[in-house]
Design a protein that fits this description.
The protein is α/β, with parallel strands linked by helices. It is built from 14 helices and 17 strands. Strands 1, 2, 7, 8, 9, 10, 16 and 17 form an eight-stranded mixed β-sheet that branches. Strands 5-4-12-13-14-11-15 form a seven-stranded mixed β-sheet, with helices on both faces. A two-stranded antiparallel ribbon has the order 3-6. The structure holds flavin-adenine dinucleotide. Flavin-adenine dinucleotide binds at residues 40-46, 63-66, 70, 76-77, 155-156, 186-188, 192, 209, 211, 298, 322-324, 330, 333-337, 339.
């Protein structure tokens, strides 16, 4: 109250530019908690960044809007590049022990005919593909951070740079104010930080994903393979995740994202409706065996980071990582893998800058932006285009896809983008 009345008092007797300077000064001086590094969002990118900074002895504070970790929801596929990042931050083996090493893929058309099948390691033994429960991934990352490293119920509501550009003021919904030397914004696809930096909102891709995790208490019956079925405007997959759980998804087309639906009985009914006449009977069974809390429905969005038009992923000492910067459709299973890669590259460069007198934080962010843009922009575009082909409703396109393209697919086509080498590792010669 005292702050507001003092600002109002000041407003009566000064010009508007002086008033704004005065407000900034007051905001940055009183009742503001000072922090060194603040990470916004305790999702995959946020937790991996905090853990990666910890490797360099750098402490950070993670702000998460939710009351606890987002443990609901289904699973994601992590490929070789994701595992490499998880190894770098020391949690790869703990996760590997819980999830199956998938051997390959079988692709069928919606008349039940097998179009192609191959092993992921047929051409390259180093390939690694596993489905990981999001809950387990987040809990594992969080468990390696010190107590109180994550501040829950801390929703970022406003962000501004200090007058001299060295600090960032973060205003939380509950009124808390923090002044941070560095902000790593991992606040997801609808990132308020990206909006503040001038990024346009993500674009709806025209498809909706229903997902779940079928549970077989006595053990699931499938081989460790990805089972895709491609139809017209509809595609499904089921993939064993562990000894008792099988991940599945149904992807359909829709002209609009529609209302947000979280009621599991509606989600189950809608997913079942989509595959009622599907040749793969396993899909209906899996949907029936799926616990309520793993059923989700997500309209798919992405944002293409056009050169010149798109802003850089940083402003002053605030930087974006993961979906906050480059939301991509999941058609190549790369969103989380790239979020993990971001965390490693960004934190390595930041740690170097913090220890060096010659590299500034801004230099580190610039180097991160240019190294990562080359990686994430093509993947975002490719994922979108693959989605358009796989969700096509055109009879001719579906026929060419199923009879000419898919039968010729080689393992390399599904895995070569996962052979990512961190530039730092290349420079260090390993
Ligand atoms: C259907 C579907 C399937 C997918 N499958 C795969 C796959 O197989 N493989 C793969 O690699 N990727 C996959 N992805 C992508 C993957 O889920 C995302 O890329 C990944 O979750 C991004 O992580 P993130 O940390 O950037 O964002 P998120 O995981 O969204 O985390 C953002 C966090 O920020 C918090 N937050 C947001 N706003 C605020 C605020 N104002 N204040 C404080 N906290 C805030 C949120 O609560 C959340 O915890 C898939 C995505 C979808 C939709």
């Amino acid at each position: 109250m005292a702050l507001i009345s003092s600002i109002l008092q000041h407003a009566k007797s000064h010009s508007s530019s002086k008033i704004s300077t005065y407000i900034q000064r007051r905001l940055f001086s009183n009742d503001v908690r000072k922090e060194n590094i603040v990470i916004v969002g305790a999702g995959i990118a946020g937790l991996a960044s905090a853990l990666s900074l910890q490797r360099f002895g750098i402490r950070s504070l993670v702000l998460e809007q939710a009351e606890s970790l987002r443990t609901e929801g289904s699973s994601i596929t992590l490929s070789k590049n994701g595992w490499k990042a998880l190894d770098a931050i020391g949690v790869g083996d703990e996760l590997r022990s819980q999830f199956l090493d998938l051997q390959g893929v079988v692709i069928k058309s919606d008349d039940g005919k097998e179009l192609n099948s191959f092993g992921f390691k047929d051409e390259d033994k180093s390939q690694e593909v596993r489905v990981v429960e999001r809950r387990v991934l987040l809990e594992t990352l969080a468990s390696k951070l010190p107590p109180n490293a994550i501040s829950f119920s801390s929703k970022l509501s406003n962000i501004e740079t200090s007058e001299n550009g060295t600090n960032t003021l973060l205003q939380l919904q509950d009124g808390t104010r923090l002044s941070a030397e560095v902000v790593i914004a991992c606040d997801g696809v609808w990132s308020p930080t990206a909006k503040w930096m001038g990024f346009r909102q993500p674009k709806y891709a025209g498809h909706i994903a229903f997902r779940g995790l079928g549970y077989f208490p006595e053990g699931q019956p499938y081989e460790p393979k990805v089972n895709y079925t491609y139809g017209r405007g509809l595609r499904t997959a089921f993939v064993p995740a562990s000894k008792t759980k099988v991940y599945w998804f149904v992807l359909c087309n829709s002209s609009s994202p529609g209302p947000r639906i979280t009621d599991p009985s509606i989600l189950r009914q809608q997913a079942k409706e989509l595959v009622r006449d599907w040749p793969v009977a396993d899909m209906l069974n899996l949907i029936n065996l799926t616990p309520d809390d793993t059923l989700t429905r997500n309209p798919l969005y992405d944002r293409w980071l056009w050169p010149v038009i798109s802003p850089p992923p940083f402003s002053g000492r605030t930087v974006l990582a993961g979906d906050a910067w480059h939301p991509m459709t999941p058609n190549m299973g790369q969103g989380a893998c790239c979020a993990l890669e971001d965390s490693i590259v960004l934190t390595e460069k930041l740690a170097e800058a913090m220890k060096s007198k010659h590299i500034s934080v801004e230099d580190a962010f610039k180097a991160y932006g240019s190294e990562r843009w080359k990686r994430v922009f093509p993947l975002t575009v490719m994922a979108n285009r693959i989605g358009a082909l796989l969700q096509s409703e055109n009879t001719l396109i579906c026929s060419v896809r199923n009879n000419l393209l898919v039968p010729k697919l080689k393992p390399r086509a599904l895995t070569k983008h996962t052979n990512y080498e961190f530039e730092q590792a290349k420079r260090d010669g390993h």
